[in-house]
Amino acid sequence: AQSSEPSSGNKTSDSSATVSTEIDTVQVGILHSLSGTMAISEVSLRDAELMAIEEINAAGGVLGKQIEPIVEDGASDWPTFAEKARKLLQQDKVATIFGGWTSASRKAMLPVVEQNNGLLWYPVQYEGMEQSPNIFYTGATTNQQIVPAIDWMLENQGKDIFLVGSDYVFPRTANKIVNAQLKAKGGTVVAEEYTPLGHTDYNTIISKIKAEKPDAIFNTLNGDSNVAFFKQLKDAGITPEDIPVMSVSVAEEEIRGIGTDVLEGHYAAWNYYQTTDTPENKTFVENYKAKYGEDRVTGDPIEAAYIAVYLWKEAVEKAGSFEVDKVKEASDGIEFKAPGGVVKIDGETQHIYKTVRIGEVQADGLFKEVWNSGEQVKPDPYLKSYDWAEGLSQE
Amino acid sequence: MIKKYSQGAYYGVFFLMLLVAPLLLSEFRMGLLAKFLCFAIIAVGISLIWGFTGILSLGHGVFFGLGAYCMAMYLKLEASPSGIPDFMEWNGITEVPFVWTLFKNPVFAILAALLLPFIIAVVIGYFTFKNRIKGVFFSLISQAVVVVTVTLFIGGQHITGGTSGLTNFFTVFQVPLADPATKQTLYFVTVALLAIIMGVALLLTKSRFGRLLIAIRDGENRLRFLGYNPTFYKVFIYALSAAFAGVAGALFVLQVGIITPEMMGIIPSIEMVLWVAIGGRYSILGAAIGAILTNTAKSFLSESYPDFWTIFLGALFLIVVLYLPNGLAGLVEQLKMKFSKKEKVKEAKQSEADTLVS
Amino acid sequence: MSVIISQLFNGLSLGSILLLIALGLAITFGLMNIINMAHGEFIMIGAYTTYLLQQVFVQHLPKTLFDYYFILAIPLSFIVAALIGLIMEKTIVRFLYERPLDSLLATWGVSLILQQTARSIFGAPNVAVVAPEWLNGGLAVAGLTFPYKRLFIIALVFISILLLFIYLYKTSSGRRMKAVTLNREMASCLGVSTRKVDSTAFALGSGFAGIAGCSLTLIGSIGPTLGTSYIVDAFMIVILGGVGKLKGTILAAIMLGVLSTFVELSTSATIAKVIVFAFIIIFLQWKPTGLVNVKVRALD
Amino acid sequence: MKPILSCHDVVVDFSGFMALQGVNLDVETSGVLFLIGPNGAGKTTLLDVICGKTRATGGEITFKDEISLVKLQEQKIVEAGIARKFQAPSIFLHLTPFENLEIAMKQKKKLFSILFAKLTDVQKDKINTMLRKIGLFEVRHEKAGSLSHGQKQWLEIGMQLIQEPTLLLLDEPIAGMSGEERTKTGELILEISKECSVLIVEHDMDFVRKYSTQVVVMHEGKVLCQGEMKDIQENEEVKNVYLGRSG
Amino acid sequence: MLHVSHLQAGYDETIILRDVDFEVPKGKIVGLLGRNGVGKTTLMKVLMGLLPMKNGNIQYEGKKLKKERPEHRARSGIAYVPQGREIFSDLTIRENLLLGMEALPKSKRSANIPEEIFTWFPVLKEMIDRKGGDLSGGQQQQLAIARALISNPKLLLLDEPMEGIQPSIVQLIQDVLVQIAKEKEMGIMLVEHNLDAVLSCADQFYILDRGRMVMSGSCDEIKEEDLQRHLAV
Ligand SMILES: Nc1ncnc2c1ncn2[C@@H]1O[C@H](COP(=O)(O)OP(=O)(O)OP(=O)(O)O)[C@@H](O)[C@H]1O
Ligand SMILES: Nc1ncnc2c1ncn2[C@@H]1O[C@H](COP(=O)(O)OP(=O)(O)OP(=O)(O)O)[C@@H](O)[C@H]1O
Ligand SMILES: NC(N)=O
Ligand SMILES: [Mg+2]
Ligand SMILES: [Mg+2]
């Protein structure tokens, strides 16, 4: 029996007065793009979240209640994300929402969850510079992915970096950070190119790459564009030995869609790989494949979506309540043995501590880890602990 | 006479339903309905240019978006305590661009939401219509305008907010937007504006001007040889419908709280035309109802079948276009005809018999 | 100099891809006046057909044969897309010949259905097609490399156009097609079987989309939304060239390809896109019926 | 008498094909001028050039002695007082005959005048009179699309008349009309010709004989000869290229 | 060769032809007269299969015609010159004429246009590679007739074929029609307002009014007052 206030109330927690035996479920919202261009990535996140819910339910649920997911389609359209989030909170009165992929979709949901005092778990690496009281970020912030990746590139690949990205908030902000970082550390940005989302012809950019002869390429392209970029890069005769590419949005699933043959030898920075060697991951990968098919692969955002559900469960149980304010309060310091290693919620930023990993694409389409941060890195969404980042954020 | 009366009755029932709706709907559903009413305003404008004048614009999203952005800029400034919108800070902008400063003034923002689409439509319309670009050529040019606008808005993200668009507003005229009272007021304002716009549209179509629009649809070159310059008429009606879309955009932002470049894109622009096709392109009321019903169906389908709803929606579009070429309004008309026809046939038989006798 | 040559090649290559995706539309839209918004989905069908054929080769045939799958994939993509086009013509498009603008709306519905169906069958994530070995690498001439894939696509486009030209202008079947698209009723009064001609034409247009899809697997992604990224460009090319004018379509595609690559070289992809579409708008103001235009005596 | 319209050396070149090769023609202020000539002689083209549908490649056309037509926009030419009926009927199919006439009627045709136009009783009477004149009063509220070919022709003539033009160009106005209706049309034309000059293209020689004041014969883009019908009939060359043995 | 009885047809709900009976014998030219809007064109469309009949009986060469599509009727030997010409404006004259041969069995189609056509319509030969749409009205009309004749039909439906054609050629066409009706045993149905033309070449006539054939007979014995009665407004 939980107490509740209307503002955060969910259907089940209204039962403080009438302890009904019937109502033994708690509803949560799952809000990803199941149609439109982003569906290629987001459908798997829904799958991972549903799998986590199923596991938790099988193990007895949360606070004795079975979790009942309400799935909605964000349709790759940010206003739709806002509308569906509103529907989940106002109409269905869900206890929390798991959802989003693009930063734009998160920015659209943000005012909705804040105004309704709801809760959103966002599972994808992003550009930082944000900290909503109603959002938990289970993907990497910049200091857990981009910053270490650039450091690693400077050390192992060279000083001249070519930046290519899709034209939206994540790549733009990420590259602003990269510019500052390279400047401070003696690297050079030889060029910075953006293409519209969904762009498919990279010949001209590749000509520019050939002309500039950089030591490496830092790639923040998103979605379909990656396929075109890598295929055409290979056709132009540029191999990873000549100019390696470091990507931050290419995980195992994207590799399958691009074709291993063109990606082998390139790099990506993440917190988790399907090949990450932990006992938790072994079971996770096995379960995922058993449930969704041998040919499916896991990857960083999939893992981040999966652990989001568990972290929420832990927080709810620690709080002894589904109430948003209590869950938030209880969240600080919660640890979970995630497939990618132990993670911990940082209550102050509502991000999580994660291990950073650099991987190289192998012939089988999976990653070989070539470097990791050893310990979990404390999330620093505003990069306050980096001198060179001063002035990047206004907070 | 009877026809006029019955048409008035339809309108009466329609607005009566809109007025009692808040009593019956939950807060969320009412929010949705308010959004659909904004769409209905766009639909009325599209019916004017498409159904009556024969201009198929596949780029009305642009005008909707411009209206929405005008309003959103004002809201965003009001929601930025530091004076600089959050996304500009992320983009390292330290001073609000001049264009933005104008939108601090709500009156300017509202006027701009109305006039900017109008003016842009006048410019686009004047050149394309003067150069006698018609039919599908015009439709595809309007799509090209969409592509240019959307690409510019996404590319100019330091001043437009890029793909993410503008969102995270708190107040309008210092009143909290999330307040139920504000929402209710906005709803009634939308209903009132819809009524005004439908009224204007009706007046226009019932007048000689309306018949001229139909003449343009049937053969605008013919009209030139009767001493008219169809260009001005087309520009006017096109710009008017653009202004309607702009008004709808401004209302949309107030109630939905977000506008993105994709909302101006090709897909929404085509969907707008589909609402009108479903409702009945030759009927003002039909178009408005089409917008409301189609979007209701879309919401309902996507909530009930998140995995397959686009299949159902596609099938709905397909079936309506195939089997109801004049939309729901056409269907109603057909049914009415059926009833009255029976009587007419009887009459005709009677008169024929008379002539045979005489 | 070498930059100019390589950019010219890039432009030609982009142009040939644009042409390939527009070729089918030049028939269904240019000749038949059907605004087929599902054209992109036929491209997608061609791409998935190629993917499936690749899977068959990988799983059921000896490795040595793998290099030949792509040769087989071209006609197969054509056939599959043409067949689905045929079904679509018989069940939907047939009712829309007198209502070209409505065809846009109905086929939009079809496009939604096909996309989601593909997602249900193949899953939401992209799938990969591995190019045959002989298409990897490039031709090195005077310090420049011309990727074989690009050369291959250019050749493929060239052959497709040649065949289409012969069909339309040298055969009686092509003449019937033009007659039916110009005046369906009268053609039937002369003894032309309009239904057969309509189906053939639509299937042909869809088939070309299939070939486009097949070749796009060499350079881009294969997913349910593949078609949406190309559909607008394809329409613009047909319009710019002049509806119903094959020559115009070819010119327009190459013009846009070259323009786009050169603008992008000196600016950015975003600006290039804006300029190319602005160019289309302005060009049509100047020549309202496209590059190669038709004069008609009729009043409207 | 001064001509109301004079064409001077008008040339039209359709990318190589010279449809008009220097036409010189004067139209008098009143009376019915018939334009005849073999198929393809350039009669329709000449009317097209006068009303601005086709642009002349060379030459000059002056209306009322002062207005040069060759560069004027179509609607400006109409404003100046030239009305034109096309060879194939082109009316507004989705409007009723009444509405067709309402739009064609002489009035201010600027956007804002139309926007606030009201149908006055005078106008209504005028339209109804015209409807009776062209025999469409009974069907005045039916959609024009369902009229027969002949009825459409009539409607179009009505639309020209109600503009009260100074010069009326008619391209085969009696095409598709039966005997009685031809006579009626002829009477109508005679009546109009009192107030404005009429230039008619026609192939029906009986009709020409009956209603013509003057006849101009065109051949291969040029004016072959001009005169009264009874003289023209006897012209050997006209017989050869146009009339044939029956004449 | 063509017997029509109790034919009823119209558009949607409106009935135009109420009860039409007539016949076209082999080798004869039958003139069909009637005021504007009585349904002559409608009748042609029904015969050609462009418009469904609501009721009645059409017997062509001993077979009943029901729902055959126009192309089947064309191939069985019915040719049609519609009111309004309907030529293919974007195709050349040659292509237009070649299309006229579509109704012939494959073996009889040729890539060349029979000279005969050009002897009747020399202007078509001069302009053979010009676009149909560029032709003048009368030239288009000639093309439409030529296109119908080229398929050697058994039954020729002509809807106001002389419209817009210069007198000398009208004369010629009349001669040609009379000649081929005889030589080729062609049945010709001629809708024409030009009374003289009908009377000078047709063998029989019918007058259509109020959805019925109100009068018929041989052209030689037609009476002026009957014509007046039925054709006057
Ligand atoms: N757009 C065009 N392109 C090429 N030739 C054309 C064009 N328009 C007309 N012509 C040609 O110009 C000539 C004159 O045509 P026009 O229509 O003026 O003849 P007309 O005297 O009206 O004949 P008719 O009595 O048959 O109506 C014709 O030979 C025609 O083929
Ligand atoms: N598409 C249509 N829909 C409805 N009614 C039509 C249609 N076409 C013709 N009609 C009506 O059918 C009647 C007969 O028309 P039809 O064209 O057959 O007449 P017609 O005898 O050929 O006349 P004309 O001598 O003027 O060519 C007319 O009253 C006309 O209003
Ligand atoms: N957060 C991202 N990848 O948009
Ligand atoms: Mg003419
Ligand atoms: Mg007729």
TrEMBL record, chain B:
Record flagged with keyword Transferase: no
Its membrane topology: Multi-pass membrane protein
- InterPro entries given in the database record: ABC_transp_permease, ABC_transptr_urea_perm_UrtC, LivM-like
List where the protein spans the membrane.
9-26, 32-51, 107-129, 136-155, 161-178, 185-204, 235-260, 272-293, 308-332
Predominant place of localization: membrane
What keywords sit in the KW lines? Cell membrane, Membrane, Transmembrane, Transmembrane helix
Location of this chain's protein in the cell: Cell membrane
Task: Fetch the NCBIfam families from UniProt.
Answer: urea_trans_UrtC
Q: Give the source species.
A: Metabacillus halosaccharovorans
Pfam families on file: BPD_transp_2
Q: Does the keyword DNA damage apply?
A: no
Q: What protein name is recorded for this chain? A: Urea ABC transporter permease subunit UrtC
Print the organism lineage: Bacteria, Bacillati, Bacillota, Bacilli, Bacillales
TrEMBL record, chain C:
Q: Which InterPro entries match?
A: ABC_transp_permease, ABC_UrtB_bac, BCAA_transport_permease
NCBIfam families documented for this protein: urea_trans_UrtB
Q: Which Pfam families match?
A: BPD_transp_2 (PF02653)
Where is it localised?
Answer: Cell membrane
Which gene is this protein's source?
urtB
**Which family does the record claim for this protein?**
Belongs to the binding-protein-dependent transport system permease family. LivHM subfamily.
Membrane association type: Multi-pass membrane protein
Which source organism? Metabacillus halosaccharovorans
Q: What domain of life is recorded for the organism? A: Bacteria
What keywords is this UniProt entry annotated with?
Amino-acid transport, Cell membrane, Membrane, Transmembrane, Transmembrane helix, Transport
Q: What is this protein called?
A: Urea ABC transporter permease subunit UrtB
Transmembrane regions? 12-35, 68-88, 151-169, 201-222, 234-258, 270-286
TrEMBL record, chain D:
Q: Which residues form the ABC transporter domain?
A: 5-245
What are the protein's GO molecular function terms? Answer: ATP binding
Name the domain of life. Answer: Bacteria
Q: Per UniProt, which keywords does this protein have?
A: ATP-binding, Nucleotide-binding, Transport
One Pfam entry name: ABC_tran
InterPro entries the record matches: AAA+_ATPase, ABC_AA/LPS_Transport, ABC_transporter-like_ATP-bd, ABC_transptr_urea_ATP-bd_UrtD, P-loop_NTPase
Which PROSITE patterns does the record match to this protein?
ABC_TRANSPORTER_2
Identify this protein by name: Urea ABC transporter ATP-binding protein UrtD
Q: Which gene encodes it?
A: urtD
UniProtKB/TrEMBL annotation, chain E:
UniProt keyword Nucleotide-binding present = yes
UniProt GO MF annotations: ATP binding
**Which keywords are on file for this protein?**
Amino-acid transport, ATP-binding, Nucleotide-binding, Transport
- Keyword GTP-binding set for record: no
Domain ABC transporter residues, every copy: 2-233
InterPro entries, per the entry? AAA+_ATPase, ABC_transporter-like_ATP-bd, ABC_transptr_urea_ATP-bd_UrtE, BCAA_Transport_ATP-bd_LivF, P-loop_NTPase
A Pfam family cross-referenced in the UniProt record is: ABC_tran
UniProt family annotation: Belongs to the ABC transporter superfamily.
- PANTHER family from the xrefs? HIGH-AFFINITY BRANCHED-CHAIN AMINO ACID TRANSPORT ATP-BINDING PROTEIN, HIGH-AFFINITY BRANCHED-CHAIN AMINO ACID TRANSPORT ATP-BINDING PROTEIN LIVF
Record-given protein name: Urea ABC transporter ATP-binding subunit UrtE
Species this chain originates from = Metabacillus halosaccharovorans
What phylogenetic lineage does the species belong to?
A: Bacteria, Bacillati, Bacillota, Bacilli, Bacillales
